[in-house]
Amino acid sequence: RGNLGISNLDHEGRVLVILDRYAEHFSQDKDWFNDKNVLINFRSVMKTDALTVFSMENNTVLHRAGANRFYLPTGLYLSAENELFITDLGLHQVVKFSQLKFHPRDAPEFALGTAFDPGNDSSHFWIYIYLVIYMT
């Protein structure tokens, strides 16, 4: 079905969050961006859930989400408070959800970067893959 992009355990080791990067979205022979690093096909949104929340205690899927929300998700971070941060290469954004179980139509708590608009100033991101969060 896809290839595992990244996973993260909650801080108690009971819940595993998996970000699934589907193979057809990450094909090496596909041109995703134009010469200005803007996503070429805005209709290339992932139609299937990119996130799976899995219980390590009873080996069951607790929740799936993310269909029709992400374009090229590449990074995942789960905070001690179970806040979920996701980088999306296609959107040129980092989004935050304040809870693991969110409805697919829920807006993120916040988004850093301007959707579909790459850049190199304080309100834009260019192409990035990973996410590092420093909590104080």
Q: Which key features would you list for this structure?
A:
mainly beta, 0% helix, 4-stranded antiparallel sheet, 136 residues, 32% strand, globular
Total beta-strand segments: 8
Give the percentage of residues in beta strands: 25-35%
Which segments are poorly predicted (pLDDT under 50) over 5 or more consecutive residues?
none
**Helix proportion of residues, in percent?**
under 10%
- Return the string of H and E elements: EEEEEEEE
What does the largest sheet look like? 4 strands, antiparallel
The side-by-side strand order for the widest beta sheet comes to 1-2-3-4
Radius of gyration: 15 Å
Number of helices: 0
Coarse structural class: mainly beta
SSE blueprint and pairings:
Elements: E1 3-9, E2 15-21, E3 51-55, E4 60-65, E5 73-78, E6 84-88, E7 93-97, E8 110-112
Antiparallel strand pairs: 1-2, 2-3, 3-4, 5-6, 6-7, 7-8
